[in-house]
Design a protein that fits this description.
The complex is a heterotrimer. Chain A has eleven helices and no strands. By secondary structure, chain A is mostly helical. Chain A has a single domain, classed as MetI-like (MetI-like fold, Orthogonal Bundle). Chain B has two domains: about 5-55; about 75-300, MetI-like (MetI-like fold, Orthogonal Bundle), CATH 1.10.3720.10. Chain B has a two-stranded antiparallel ribbon with strand order 1-2. In chain B, a hairpin with a 5-residue loop joins strand 1 (about 55) and strand 2 (about 65). The radius of gyration of chain B is 26 Å and the shape is globular. By secondary structure, chain C is an alpha+beta fold. Chain C folds into two domains: about 5-235, P-loop containing nucleotide triphosphate hydrolases (Rossmann fold), CATH 3.40.50.300; about 235-370, Nucleic acid-binding proteins (OB fold (Dihydrolipoamide Acetyltransferase, E2P), Beta Barrel), CATH 2.40.50. In chain C, the strands form four sheets. Chain C has a six-stranded mixed sheet, with helices on both faces. A five-stranded mixed barrel of chain C has the order 11-12-13-20-14. At the A-B interface, helix 1, helix 3, helix 4, helix 5 and helix 6 of A face helix 2, helix 4, helix 5, helix 6 and helix 8 of B.
Chain lengths: ~260, ~300, ~375
Amino acid sequence: MSEKKSPIWLRIYSFLAYLFIYIPILILIVFSFNTMKLNIRWEGFTTSWYNVLFRDQDIIQATRNTLIIALISTLVATVVGTLAALAMQRYRFPGYAASETLMYIPIVIPEVVMGISLLVFFVMMNLTLGLFTITLAHIAFNIPFVTLVVRARLHGYDNAIDEAAMDLGADEMQTFWRVTLPTILPGVLSGAMLALTLSLDDYVITYFTAGPGSTTLPLRVFSMVRFMVTPEVNALSTLWVLTVFVILLIGQIIQSRRT
Amino acid sequence: MTITEAAENRKKSSVLKTIRESRVAQGLALIAPANIYLFLLMVLPLLLVVGLSFLSRGEYGNVVFIFNLTNYSRLLDPLYGRILFYSLSVGIGTTVFSILIGYPLAYYIARAPARQRSLLLFLILVPFWTNFIIRTYAWIMILRAGGFLDAVLQWAHITQRSLNLLYTPTAVMIGMIYEFLPFMILPLYSSLEKIENSLLEAAADLGAPPWKVFLRVTLPLSLPGIFAGTILVFIPAMGMFVIPDLLGGAKTILIGNVIRNQFLTARDWPFGAASSMILMILTMVFTLYYTRKAGFSEDLLV
Amino acid sequence: MAGEFAVELRDIVKKFMTPEGSELAAVNHVTMQIKNGEFFSMLGSSGCGKTTSLRLIAGFEWPTEGEVWIEGKSLGHTPPYQRNVNTVFQSYALFQHMTVYQNVAFGLEMEGASKEEISKRVGKALEMVQLTGMDRRHPKQLSGGQQQRVALARALVKVPQVLLLDEPLGALDLKLRKEMQLELKSLQQQLGITFIYVTHDQEEALTMSDRIAVMSHGKVLQMGPAVEIYERPTSRFVADFIGETNFLEGRVKSVKGDQTVVTIPAWKQELTGIATAPVTVGDDVAVSIRPEKIQLVEKPVTKQNTLEGVVVRSTYIGSDTHVYLDVRGETIKVWDQNRVSTVDPSAFYQKGEKVWLTLLPENTLVLPNESV
């Protein structure tokens, strides 16, 4: 589509739509600085809730857990997913259709169902629920997304460059490391970022596969929201939004640098 | 080198040789890790759930291994029928509203100057990547009795008393739409953006006024985006239990809540499994019908 | 170690599986011998097997049957990185994440050359293709013609015995293409390397090649120097594929030495010509007459191969006039060279004009009428 000035009603509508999207977040941020506990009325400005947040051991532990799980599951899922994407875009083998279906199941399954099925599985395997099981679960739902993203990037891949590399004397391994991988790297990183975000954000599946003492940030946030509503939650939310904002901003800058 | 070592070496190198020579072997080797992992941690658990749905809960919360269909007959109770119906309407409602609300916005962004476009998308992505529990919490703050909405309306003298919107189905809908809107906007934008300008110009050249160009050219060509967005919204919306839990309280129950309750509170796993099966079947039917109609496309991904 | 032939394809068959599950022979019993130092082209339309043959030489495909000999060694089942053969790809296949320098240096790195040697050889290669100074650019920043030269430099820097070129000029505009054709030819003569060139553009093949192999449906129909292919096609397909020609259906009446007399049923007349492939009396044949070989005269001077026709259409091309004649029901096209410069319209053939055409027997080719 080309650029065209939109009619005035569309512009007003879009502005209101953005307002609708952002006002809740802004309220969240503003009230994280409220002195009053029951944060309906504005009492005074304070950063005390942030102090409470930083000293909250549960939160710190939860953050640590979340990061560990996210990093490990992203790493494993990216490697496995990239290999699978290469397999599916470049090769034909018996069981191709079945593999493809298998790959797409986690995407079209409701999270609840995946969560409880993993719970049942882990219990039947006599595995104690904890960080390990959560990580296993995260890898499982991350793999298809990585594969999907990398496959999309592989679509326009000019196979001739791999042939050119071999033509010039590189064997299969050298071709992969020096030509294939660097070329698909943006796609792989995209997939990894997606996996990282999905893992950091996940509530439902983590909920079912976590055990006592192995809480993650989303789980903690949920119980804070459900049970003890203090502006500490606002403080946490604000920090979360800001972190996302900064990371996305960096991503955008890197992208625009490339072009 | 002993004889056995030499034999081992020869075996290893012939395996590598087969992989090198045969493209089929290469493909299989590459996809094996993913297949094995997903089979163990996806297919197997689901099969267990299927099996579980045909068993019963014992007296002490354990599982009695007798094949029966009591769980399914329980689900025939009109109570669950209502819950199912309610879940479907929430799912459909969320989808429809996010299309209605999201389409104009996606259209606006697709037509914006290129420089603005990345900013506009960025602004959509920021809340999108923010944890959904946090975003739902924001709505709790707004909709609760004496919350932000009440405060503003009363200050403007539009209402006298609290609207008490929290813990109502309306609140759940608002929360669901808010959560799923970006999932609809992004694929819509993606397919709108791909529409070649020359097609729109050709339509105009042949005499179509702007609204007809939209109706006869733009809208049909954006259908893949609508399909993709629907899959991304409807399926998760159907199984959602967190938002109904937070914004709807005990009064609003969807299938997701039922399943969750069975597994974590009532401890009737077989029944929970059966409920999951119903949800699964609904989802699969929807997916099959939809993907056949739409053709599963990879412009799901922005 | 030089034999007479740089590359030999010995009765090669290459079969592929179609998506429907059946087998297709992309190359169907092809034998070719390509001499050292020659510019050899494989010519044909898409699907004829020329690209597959090239890939068999490069090593990206391995023959189902038959042998590929390169420099006196049977290398049919050797991977491409072990063959002393390099390819210039149709899509250029430049490494986008590397600079021009790194692209050209890649093959030398694979050989394990030292940094100094690489620097020297890359410099010379870029000079050879007139891209000095571009070494730090990325392929994205180059024009199509420049990218093509990088691909060329990258392959040539390794000084292969044989260079394979897969329709390298297809993406360039006409003027650039013609320039590059001349450049490639002179480069080949300079370096003395065997060039094996694949194209569907017959003009390109005729201009550049020492010898051409015309291919169709996985088979080689005719192989020889350009002159031979053009002037003495041995099959109807080749006569039709290369250049323009007029075809007439006929039957062999007599064969005497190199003179073959053919009866043209449509005209109830005989033509005397030469047969480019063995024919016997009674055979159904196609008579091929190239338009530029037909003489248009006011009054006939001989009776042999002379007919009268009526001008149907006349198109001025500049160097020639293309005259379309109705000769007793058959449409014959004649390229009449504009030998005298004039702007007088009456000097050109007008519609409806009667004119005589005459053919020399050497220009009247008798071809077997088999379909490929």
